[in-house]
Sequence to fold (316 residues):
Amino acid sequence: MTKELSLEERFQQYVDAENKVEPKDWMPEKYRKTLIRQISQHAHSEVVGMLPEANWITRAPSLRRKVALLAKVQDEAGHGLYLYSAAETLGADRQALVKDLLDGKAKYSSIFNYPTPTWADIGAIGWLVDGAAIANQVMLCRTSYGPYARAMVRICKEESFHQRQGYEILLTLVRGTEAQKKMAQDSLNRWWWPSLMMFGPTDDHSPNSAQSMKWKIKRKSNDELREEFIDKTVPQAEFLGLTIPDPKLKWNEERGHYDHSEIDWEEFYDVISGKGKCNKQRMDARNKAHAEGKWVREAANVYARKQAEHSKQSAA
Ligand code: 3HC
Fold:
């Protein structure tokens, strides 16, 4: 028992000294497990996140918008692959992770269970959803697990393009006709509160945060990141001439942050337990895509096996 405690204490001292934990380092089993939990859900979010936006690729209003949206959706696929690879460095089996998602056992970000009825939603997703993801992922660039931190550096560079292209879509709409400005306002009304929910439950209701903060997996708490996002985003909404759908939103000079209404946590827990507007649609789409991609995976596996046999023969 003493030996295990000293291993745990040595690990904590190593992390406290701002060292990066690498795949071959000793780590507490719970550290490994919570990283697989978080990184796999992050990866699932990237892959499922492609669906609401893909819905608009064939209907983008111009070739330029279509190209930007195509690039963004392709980026998200790449982010998913980085993150599944990061999870594999912890000994996770990618097929098993994907199966958990397809079987509805694994979580992915609540935000992707909302519909995208108009083109303005693509702008709101880029501006708000990727904006919220950036707040969280910039923090994760300093997470204690090396492969996760390094994956974040590349992902964050691409997220800033995602956020800019979304904001520009809304800027174009608010400078257009009254109908276009209304479309932009309606999308802000739909996406504001779900974007705040992306950061997770309040700190006092987060079962994982305290330990994740101790192990420097998280460097800021859910509420800290949420406040950071609100403080940064309100002036952007003002520049667009849009109204944030929260009558209680007000700058609090003393706190140095915006005060806001209570988030609808019942909606949050409904959505993450599968009762959101689009949960079934998203899972059906993922399962259909997985089934239709079976031949690609089989062909790639045959090719890989032939390559391996070829290299073995040439080495003999
Ligand atoms: N959606 C779904 N589940 C959520 C959630 C959300 N928005 N917020 C929290 N949860 C879940 C947690 O996974 C946890 O459930 P679990 O124990 O079964 O995994 C439970 O609710 C309690 O939440 P905690 O705060 O205790 O959990 P965490 O400490 O893991 O914090 C988190 C939640 C802040 C989302 C953290 O997991 C995290 O930072 N994840 C990495 C970032 C991420 O996943 N972002 C999702 C969006 S990715 C994206 O937007 C792509 C971009 O390109 C658009």
